[in-house]
């Protein structure tokens, strides 16, 4: 069982144990107890008659409190005010449970305390006993010492700051795969950490405790399954990172935390939350003056452990306080700087992470299409395709996703390739679809990304696909002759498609930045995506440089990109037409080609759309031969 701290405030009578103890308990939101309330009747009588207690009187009283302390520590902890003047009394108090006791000694001069005793009324302790108290007092061996020559607020603050040395710098809630890896990452960077995981019978049992016991440096980490004790174990202002499943679980945790937190504490949501929900959560927490950093984190389990790319957003003040934790554990760019930057106001970090995932979806689908056509049109084996991908990496197409795909293709199970055993039905948690919705709301094209989402949706219709395939019996064709030229053309089309996909993703970020006044820095976003994240690549390094001081330029119009694209345009159309003709579905290649041809066409087909709209709905149209603020309607049916 996880235990909570019991704070024992001790010192001679009149030193302020009750006042300070109550204030501290209120601050920590834990119960306060006064040792005097545990005296047997006989002791109280003796004291109020002016007789000092002897050790025989004290023994059962101290023993009883040792039991109470042990009990409180199994609950939420407590503050106990107790004189505990002799070392042996203190030893009795901690005889059952010493590990969870924090000793706080209130020290003051005889004159100061005597003066306070004079103004203190209706107490059974007589001032004359102070002399004997000072004689009995043995200087403390344990805990912290606080001089009481100041007001109670100052004393409480001093206690808190001295206790901080024993408190964790950071808290993390949720020890799933990502949470555990991030926790290990924080510990490897020498932060002290408290971790919390819920307790669920037969399902999540003692997760935090087990995690602590597995850590080589377990002195730096405290584990809890009680939220209040977890919160009490943190330095203030507190920084608490949530690594729980996006959606309702985040709100449940936030709701439980709100009553336990204080002004200026900061919650970091490191999950893939929707940016609009993050905005709502920020507003809700702001009402309690609690800071909130909605933070995108990319890199999967390994990234979380060794250094992810981190996209935090929220108030700058909160970032200045809590951002250091994130910057320290993140990946590094080629100059050694952190792949974590303050992205912008509330919601923007999760928006940027959402688009990261959108780009990721399309890059993954692009690789899937490339593999598929190489395997089933060009007749290559998985090993040959892996070799081709490795050559592309050498040729400047290096990316994390290309590298892992090359590795995936080499994986065997006995004589079989593992890839052939994996069901062709893609899962998704929603971020690609959210990007598509955002593009629809903002009125921009997201064709490569939306097509990759739709491709996953169609892949999910496995039984319908099998049935339709039996009905139509369509045949795919394979390449007849030497396929070197085809592979070269495919490489060109692959690179061009990837550039178009990145252009599309950054255009969405740019539009959202304008719409929501986020003032996002595209170069910084590309920079923190150069390492740690899933879409890190040579291309991302180039994009970082291109956007530097050119935030408003569109990727496809940079002269360096035009130079890369021009010799590849023919390959784009060629691969799409060869592939479709041979019977292969190529949604991302096709979407990229269509986008590019439309984007680079001065004259589109939309004049027909406008005429149709005006024909059946009198929606009006603008003309090429008049000013654009004029709208026209034609009576088409005359
Ligand atoms: C990352 C990943 C990560 C996760 C995706 C998977 O950047 O580390 O994108 O966030 O793997 O959410 O999403 P799907 O399950 O939707 O493919």
What do you see in this structure?
- The protein is an alpha/beta fold.
- It folds into three domains: 144 residues, 3-Layer(aba) Sandwich (Rossmann fold), CATH 3.40.50; 180 residues, Rossmann fold (3-Layer(aba) Sandwich); 244 residues, Orthogonal Bundle (N-(1-d-carboxylethyl)-l-norvaline Dehydrogenase, domain 2), CATH 1.10.1040.10.
- The chain contains 27 helices and 14 strands.
- The strands form three sheets. Strands 8-7-6-9-10-11-12 form a seven-stranded mixed sheet, with helices on both faces. A five-stranded parallel sheet has the order 2-3-1-4-5.
- α9 links the parallel β7 and β8.
- 6-phosphogluconic acid binds next to α15.
Features:
638 residues, alpha/beta, Rossmann fold, N-(1-d-carboxylethyl)-l-norvaline Dehydrogenase, domain 2, 3 domains, seven-stranded mixed β-sheet, five-stranded parallel β-sheet, 27 helices, binds 6-phosphogluconic acid
């Amino acid at each position: 069982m996880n235990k909570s701290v019991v704070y024992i405030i001790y010192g001679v009578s009149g030193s302020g144990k009750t006042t300070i103890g109550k204030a501290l308990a209120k601050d920590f939101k834990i119960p306060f107890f006064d040792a005097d309330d545990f005296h047997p009747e006989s002791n109280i009588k003796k004291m109020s008659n002016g007789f000092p207690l002897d050790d025989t009187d004290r023994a059962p009283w101290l023993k009883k409190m040792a039991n109470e302390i042990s009990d409180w520590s199994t609950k939420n902890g407590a503050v106990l005010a107790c004189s505990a003047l002799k070392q042996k009394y203190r030893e009795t108090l901690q005889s059952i449970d010493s590990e969870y006791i924090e000793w706080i000694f209130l020290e003051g001069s005889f004159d100061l305390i005597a003066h306070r005793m004079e103004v203190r009324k209706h107490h059974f302790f007589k001032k004359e006993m102070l002399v004997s108290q000072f004689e009995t007092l043995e200087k403390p061996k344990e805990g912290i010492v606080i001089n009481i020559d100041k007001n109670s607020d100052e004393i409480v603050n001093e206690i808190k700051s001295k206790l901080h040395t024993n408190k964790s710098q950071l808290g993390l809630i949720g020890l799933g795969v990502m949470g555990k890896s991030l926790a290990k990452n924080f510990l490897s960077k020498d932060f002290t950490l408290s971790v919390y995981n819920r307790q669920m019978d037969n399902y999540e049992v003692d997760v935090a405790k087990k995690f602590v016991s597995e850590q080589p440096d377990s002195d730096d980490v405290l584990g809890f399954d009680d939220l209040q004790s977890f919160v009490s174990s943190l330095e203030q202002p507190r920084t608490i990172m949530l690594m729980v499943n996006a959606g309702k679980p985040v709100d449940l945790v936030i709701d439980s935390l709100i009553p336990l937190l204080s002004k200026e504490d900061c919650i970091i949501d490191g999950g893939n939350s929707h940016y609009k929900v993050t905005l709502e959560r920020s507003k809700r927490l702001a009402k309690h003056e609690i800071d909130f950093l909605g933070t995108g984190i990319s890199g999967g389990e390994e990234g979380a452990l060794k250094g992810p790319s981190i996209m935090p957003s929220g108030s700058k003040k909160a970032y200045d306080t809590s951002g250091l934790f994130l910057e320290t554990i993140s990946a590094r760019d080629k100059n050694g700087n952190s792949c974590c930057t303050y992205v912008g106001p509330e919601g923007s970090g999760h928006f940027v992470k959402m688009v990261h995932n959108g780009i990721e979806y399309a890059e993954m689908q692009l690789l899937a299409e490339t593999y598929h056509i190489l395997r089933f049109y060009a007749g290559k084996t998985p090993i040959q395709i892996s070799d081709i991908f490795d050559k592309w990496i050498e040729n400047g197409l290096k990316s994390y996703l290309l590298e892992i795909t090359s590795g995936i293709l080499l994986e065997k199970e006995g004589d079989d390739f593992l890839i052939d055993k994996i069901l062709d039905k893609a899962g998704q948690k929603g971020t690609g679809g959210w990007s598509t919705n955002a593009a629809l709301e903002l009125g921009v094209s997201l064709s490569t990304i939306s097509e990759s989402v739709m491709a996953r949706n169609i892949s999910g219709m496995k039984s319908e696909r099998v049935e339709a395939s039996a009905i139509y019996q369509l045949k795919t064709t394979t390449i007849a002759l030497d396929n070197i030229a085809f592979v070269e053309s495919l490489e060109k089309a692959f690179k061009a498609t990837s550039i178009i996909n990145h252009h599309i993703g950054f255009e969405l970020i740019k539009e959202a930045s304008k719409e929501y006044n986020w003032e996002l820095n595209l170069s910084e976003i590309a920079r923190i995506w150069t390492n740690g994240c899933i879409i890190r690549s040579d291309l991302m390094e180039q994009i970082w440089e291109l956007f530097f001081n050119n935030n408003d330029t569109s990727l496809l119009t940079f002269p360096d990109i035009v130079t890369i694209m021009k010799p590849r345009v023919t390959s784009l159309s060629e691969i799409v037409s060869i592939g479709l003709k041979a019977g292969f579905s190529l949604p991302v290649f096709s979407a990229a080609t269509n986008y590019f041809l439309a984007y680079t066409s001065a004259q589109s087909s939309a004049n027909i759309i406008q005429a149709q709209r005006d024909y059946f709905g009198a929606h009006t149209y603008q003309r090429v031969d008049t000013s654009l603020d004029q709208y026209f309607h034609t009576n088409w049916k005359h």
